[in-house]
Specification:
Layout lengths: L2 H16 L8 H17 L23 E3 L9 E2 L2 H14 L5 E7 L2 E8 L2 E7 L5 E3 L2 H5 L14 E8 L2 H13 L8 H9 L4 H5 L4 E9 L8 H11 L7 E4 L2 H12 L9 E8 L2 H7 L9 E4 L5 E13 L4 E13 L2 E7 L3 H6 L3 E2 L2 E5 L7 E5 L9 E2 L13 E2 L7 E3 L8 H9 L11 H9 L14 H5 L6 H14 L4 H7 L7 H11 L2 H6 L2 H5 L6 H11 L2 H12 L20 E5 L7 H10 L3 E3 L8 E4 L5 H9 L2 E3 L1 H7 L2
Parallel strand pairs: 2-11, 21-22, 21-23, 23-24
Antiparallel strand pairs: 1-6, 3-9, 3-10, 4-5, 4-7, 7-8, 10-11, 12-13, 12-16, 13-14, 13-20, 15-18, 16-17, 19-20
Helix pairs in contact: 1-2, 16-17
């Protein structure tokens, strides 16, 4: 299959997957085809066309978004909160246009954007901003699979749509963020907003955003009589359209459709924040005109938040994969927002205290614009005196380890490194490349080892039997032999790798190196107090406290003893410095170097006494750059930092 045929096939599969929700091949097959296309494009001397599917994977990170003046303003809508307000809107419309009809659509809870096409090619995308001026997010919008990079006609057109995050993608993203110890997004709209405004489009590409188109902003070459006609034309161009829209002759029909949308009958896979009534006839829209902020020919109906009273029967603790203890309300089941709700998150102890919530209280729960129902308030006048104050446990309900609350955090965490609730994540970190570097021990194998109870701690990896590993799914004797060798080899890792692998909060790779270099042995490191730790470069008072807390937990000490017993190296391997020519110098690496990997170049710099940083500042001594260097190179030029190529770097280390 040549490069042109491959592009056309990927365009078709992408359209069927994103616009028609009817995938014809598996995700794996699509990914392999995309990888092959990228390889062919890299080897080809031909320029990459603007509508190539490879443009969806994201490019170089930006330093900021430029401003865009909208050719046609993106107006907001007047809100209505009752059917009486809708009837008033109808009366005003009919006074000017007595036979006007309406189009009713769902109002997607996302971010409004304008997409500009020239000759059928997508050339610019901008956020709504204040309606007059938005931000250029073209590169991020390119990563959304449902935005056609080339239309079915060579049209010059500007369209308006809503970028959103489907519910399933929202849950998946929050699960990943929880595993990484990152703050969770409250709702899909916040997640979509945070994802679309990433300076690095590769991050946006991995967030699972989608878009629905709902309006023609400008199309000089074609005219339409009705809004319905314009939407049919947009669909023929290849756009993914708002799925729920209905033409209504009267306001009563429109209200009936709004009620149907609000009942949840359409079972949408995304969040809405209302419904929109628009005059269908475009000539009537011109006649009705607009105010300074909103059109007079449309109105948005906002559904009132549904609230119900119920009883808070108990508060149970759930321990997440990052060790966070989350209190959850156990409620007398109540039907709300189309579903029966018996549980609701209470977030953290601060939330419970702010609401003055007690077990046994009558509470108000709400489900409006949020996927997860939330306790809004307590009905204190219904208290009987039998209610009980809730306190967060001092020990983990899963493993019994002490719980801790770190400075400037609302979360309370389990301090046990062997806690079953977070063990998989801890082991994945322990075996990672920058930690103990046990090649071949991926998440699927770790999950099997835990499921079959072959391990219950990181130290148990060093006591595995080859025959037990060979019996795992997709392993066999040869794979078990390779894994056994990788585990044995990891015992020789430096003390700095071991310290990082322990997973102590805020002790990263750089801190691990500093600690190993200072204390020389694991015993000396474990015996250090907060004052001694805080005196080390890269180790602040909070990190020092985290280390001491970690070393005070019996569970963690037992695991370390077992690691030592297995023969894991606990001594810092002094690196012989040829000289310290880079002492006091800070390097930043960017782009792809001709012969060195970043790890190799970093190791050379550190061997000569230098320091490698991930960001450019006025304190940066040199920026070592290669092909496809991005924003770091631009910033270095702006700050006047010295730039060096790999060839110049080699001269420096001769």
């Amino acid at each position: 299959m040549d490069i042109h045929e491959l592009r056309e096939k990927l365009k078709h599969y992408s359209y069927m997957y994103y616009a028609k929700d009817d995938p014809e091949i598996t995700d794996y097959e699509y990914d392999m085809m995309m990888r092959e296309l990228i390889r062919l494009e890299e080897e080809s001397n031909e320029p990459i066309p603007p509508d190539s599917p490879s443009r969806r994977v994201g490019g170089e990170a930006l330093s900021s978004f430029s401003k865009v003046i909208h050719e046609v303003p993106l107006q907001s809508l007047t809100d209505a909160f009752s059917y009486d307000e809708l009837r008033d809107f109808d009366r005003r419309v009919k006074e000017e246009c007595f036979d006007a009809t309406y189009d009713v659509e769902v109002k997607i809870d996302g971010l409004s954007v304008a997409l500009t096409y020239e000759g059928g090619y997508f050339v610019k995308g901008a956020t709504r901003g204040d309606g007059e001026v938005g931000e250029d997010v073209t590169e991020n919008l390119r990563t959304i699979g449902s935005i056609p990079l080339k239309l079915t006609e060579d049209a010059d057109i500007i369209v308006r749509g809503e970028v959103y995050m489907p519910r399933k993608n929202f849950f998946a993203l929050n699960e990943k963020r929880e595993e990484a110890g990152e703050p969770l997004f409250k709702n899909p709209r916040n997640a979509a907003a945070g994802s679309l405004r990433q300076l690095d489009s590769k991050i946006t590409a991995g967030r699972g955003l989608d878009i629905l188109i709902f309006n023609v902003q400008k199309c000089d070459a074609k005219t339409f009589d009705t809004h319905t006609e314009s939407l049919s034309y947009l669909e023929s161009l290849g756009f993914k359209m708002v799925p729920v829209r209905k033409s209504c002759k009267t306001i009563d029909e429109a209200i009936a459709e709004i009620e149907k949308i609000g009942s949840g009958e359409y079972n949408l896979g995304f969040e809405i924040d209302g419904a929109v009534i628009k005059v269908n006839e475009l000539s009537y829209r011109e006649k009705l005109g607009s105010t300074a902020k909103a059109p007079r020919w449309a109105i948005a109906y906002k559904y009132p938040p549904e609230q119900k009273e119920t009883k808070l029967l108990d508060i149970e603790i759930q321990v997440g994969r990052t060790g966070v203890l989350t209190p959850n309300a156990v409620l007398t089941p109540v039907f709300i927002g189309g579903t029966t709700v018996g549980r609701a998150t209470l977030h953290n102890i601060d939330f419970i205290r702010q609401k003055d919530m007690m077990i046994g209280d009558t509470v108000i729960i709400q489900k409006a614009g949020e996927i997860i129902p939330e306790v809004v308030s307590v009905v204190k006048e219904k208290r009987t005196g039998e209610e009980r104050k809730f306190n967060m446990p001092e020990t983990c309900p899963v493993c019994g380890a002490k719980t801790v609350r770190y400075e400037n955090e609302a979360a309370i965490r389990c301090s046990g490194n062997e806690c079953p609730a977070q063990l998989q994540r801890n082991i994945e970190h322990f075996v990672s490349r920058d930690a103990m570097n046990i090649d071949g021990l991926g998440p699927a194998i770790i999950a099997q080892l835990l499921e079959r109870k072959l391990i219950s701690s990181t130290a148990d990896l060093y006591y595995l039997k080859k025959e037990d590993v060979a019996a795992l799914d997709k392993m066999g004797e040869k794979s078990a032999e390779n894994l056994d060798e990788a585990i044995k080899k990891s015992k020789e890792s430096d003390l700095s790798n071991l310290i990082f692998a322990l997973g102590i909060r805020q002790v990263g790779q750089s801190a691990g190196k500093s600690l190993a270099k200072h204390f020389k042995t694991l015993d000396a490191f474990m015996a250090a107090n907060e004052e001694e730790l805080s005196a080390i470069e890269d180790i602040g008072p909070i990190t020092a406290k985290n280390i001491v807390t970690y070393m005070s937990e019996t569970q963690n000490l037992s695991n370390i003893q077992n690691l030592v017993g297995a023969g894991v190296n606990t001594v810092y391997k002094e690196e012989e410095l040829t000289d310290e020519r880079f002492s006091g110098l800070t390097f930043v690496l960017t782009g792809t170097l001709p012969t060195y990997t970043r790890d190799q170049a970093s190791a050379i710099i550190e061997r000569f006494g230098g320091k490698v940083s991930g960001s450019v500042s006025k304190k940066t001594s040199y920026v070592l750059f290669g092909d496809e260097a991005g924003s770091k190179l631009t910033k270095a030029k702006d700050l006047g930092v010295t730039l060096i190529t790999e060839e110049e770097f080699n001269e420096m280390i001769k």
